[in-house]
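Tokens as discussed.
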């Protein structure tokens, strides 16, 4: 009996120890977990708990303004109105939206978007119904708000370009962020709903500066996510303001002059600083349409316009430079020790390698030297120079003046380097046989393979006027550092300057009709007429058709480069009018008006006052 009781006691003791051990292990585990929750990982869980209670909302900064050189606004932020609806504040979404349509139009697509958003978002979250309400529409809806439950009108800031197409290609525009943008840029702002970034022009080039830095606010929310109150706010930092070198008055004048023609571009530069005072590509477009959104009709009108309004002709449009290249050939000839008194007999054509090359003057110019050839724009003289020089010497000289390269200090991204052809280029890029003398002859008068942008042509003219490596730029504040001298004989440059003066101011110069009569504001320059079609032998025999007799797209481009005043050069310009015909008749008068306006302008610190009498002289 006693033995049996002892056995039972031993079994009870063992069970007690086992159960006690299990309890102790459980208590140890619970204690360890409690320690982890409260001590080791306490900070983490407190943070997560706080996140469940507090929501952080990003605050969008105001975009920096863009102004001209005198502070006149070119891109600013203006109030705009948006309409929202909150589902749990109305008994019937359908009825409320139907009532809204009594005051403003909602398209089927807009209604479809509203219902799609309502399905995806909680009932207490406002959903966008329509943006870009007029002020009158916003006022009507606010007055009617008591009878439109759930409706709310919000005022937001929207980018606005007051001068529309006049500055469109240089200033650029902002537009909605795309998935591609988000993949390329990790900034949190890009993930904000309806956020817009710079897409073209300086809006894109300086987007990071203009964008600013976001702020945030912390709000207390319920378990369902409903806001209860604001706990903390840090205001966003507005973007930096950007001042351009452009003069609004000169830009508007340039646009006004080009608008007389179907298409073209013009650049006006300050030679002392390289500042671009005006740069217009015509036709343009309204950048505000990219902000508010295009209608189908607007977009179709733009993309179907053969004059390509979206193309920035200033820096990416490339053209055969025509006779404006002849100063470069003259400099190459002088560097090769060809005397300026060298004479060539122009009979109206020259035969080279079983091919005939014609001068623009059918009966020829007779005996001409280098000066006469430039003043009268004799093609045959330059054909002869091409044979003596070869393409490499011409190309080497052209490089000093900006051809075949991007020339600006701050606009590289939107520049086309153009084309400065060479033997090696043709052999490696084209499957059209080796370089031949005919190719060089074509280049010598700015035809054939050679292509340049209006910005390059203006740069060439600026360097001819100063003998220095002037570089254009569009953003102010880059200083007045004197450009380095070109590696070109200054005396040769002086001789070319004299020739360019006589092109405009001598009795027989091709641009005499566009001269500025005031001696203090006289200009020098060079006309150019670039063919876009091949003239057949039969047409030459019967008489070359005039531009008025052929289809618009077959007409020659009209070009002019010039600078002034002649005695102390300060401004340079380049004008290209697409299919405008004669450079002397079409482009030169525009250049004259731009230069006379710049030379007569009185810079009084906040505006440019243009002297109309000087423009028309």
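Sequence:
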């Amino acid at each position: 009996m006693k033995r049996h009781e002892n056995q039972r006691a031993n079994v009870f003791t063992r069970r007690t120890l086992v159960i006690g051990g299990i309890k102790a292990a459980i208590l140890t585990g619970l204690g360890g977990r409690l320690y982890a929750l409260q001590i080791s990982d306490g900070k983490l869980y407190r943070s997560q708990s706080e996140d469940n209670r507090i929501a952080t909302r990003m605050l969008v900064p105001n975009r920096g303004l863009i102004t001209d050189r005198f502070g006149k606004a070119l891109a600013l932020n203006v109030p705009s109105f948006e309409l929202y609806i909150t589902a749990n504040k109305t008994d019937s979404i359908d009825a409320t939206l139907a009532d809204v349509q009594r005051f403003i139009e909602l398209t089927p697509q807009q209604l479809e978007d509203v219902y799609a958003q309502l399905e995806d978002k909680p009932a207490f979250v406002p959903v966008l119904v329509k943006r870009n309400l007029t002020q009158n529409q916003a006022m009507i809806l606010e007055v009617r708000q008591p009878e439109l439950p759930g409706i709310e009108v919000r005022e937001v800031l929207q980018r606005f370009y007051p001068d529309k197409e006049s500055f469109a290609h240089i200033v650029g525009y902002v537009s909605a962020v795309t998935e591609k943008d988000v993949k390329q840029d990790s900034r949190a702002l890009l993930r904000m709903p309806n956020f817009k970034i710079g897409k073209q022009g300086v809006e894109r080039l300086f987007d990071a500066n203009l964008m600013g830095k976001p702020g945030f606010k912390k709000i207390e929310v319920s378990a369902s996510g409903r806001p209860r109150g604001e706990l903390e706010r840090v205001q966003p930092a507005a973007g930096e303001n950007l001042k351009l070198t452009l003069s609004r008055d000169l830009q508007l004048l340039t646009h006004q002059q080009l608008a007389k023609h179907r298409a073209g571009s013009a650049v006006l530069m300050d030679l002392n600083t390289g500042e671009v005072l005006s740069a217009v590509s015509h036709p343009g477009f309204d950048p505000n349409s990219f902000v508010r959104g295009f209608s189908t009709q607007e977009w179709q009108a733009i993309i179907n316009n053969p004059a390509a309004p979206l193309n920035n002709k200033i820096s990416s449009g490339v053209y055969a430079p025509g006779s404006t290249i002849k100063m470069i050939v003259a400099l190459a000839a002088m560097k090769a020790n060809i005397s300026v008194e060298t004479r060539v007999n122009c009979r109206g054509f020259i035969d080279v390698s079983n091919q005939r090359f014609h001068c623009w003057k059918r009966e020829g110019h007779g005996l001409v030297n280098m000066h006469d050839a430039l003043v009268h724009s004799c093609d045959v003289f330059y054909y002869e120079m091409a044979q003596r020089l070869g393409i490499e010497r011409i190309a080497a000289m052209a490089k000093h003046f900006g051809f075949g390269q991007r020339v600006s200090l701050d606009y590289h991204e939107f520049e086309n380097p153009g084309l400065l052809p060479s033997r090696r280029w043709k052999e490696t890029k084209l499957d059209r046989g080796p370089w031949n003398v005919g190719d060089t002859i074509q280049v010598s008068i700015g035809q054939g393979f050679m292509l340049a942008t209006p910005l390059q042509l203006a740069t060439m003219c600026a360097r001819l006027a100063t003998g220095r490596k002037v570089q254009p730029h569009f953003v102010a504040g880059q200083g007045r550092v004197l450009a380095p001298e070109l590696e070109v004989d200054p005396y040769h440059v002086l001789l070319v300057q004299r020739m360019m003066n006589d092109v405009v101011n001598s009795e027989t110069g091709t641009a005499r009709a566009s001269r500025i009569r005031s001696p203090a504001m006289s200009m020098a320059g060079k006309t150019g007429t670039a063919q876009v079609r091949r003239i057949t032998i039969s047409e030459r025999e019967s008489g070359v058709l005039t531009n008025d007799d052929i289809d618009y797209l077959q007409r020659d481009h009209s070009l002019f480069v010039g600078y002034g005043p002649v005695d102390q050069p300060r401004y340079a310009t380049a004008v290209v009018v697409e299919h405008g015909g004669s450079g002397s008749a079409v482009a030169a008068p525009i250049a004259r008006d731009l230069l006379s306006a710049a030379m007569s302008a009185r810079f009084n610190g906040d505006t440019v006052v243009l002297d109309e009498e000087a423009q028309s002289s």
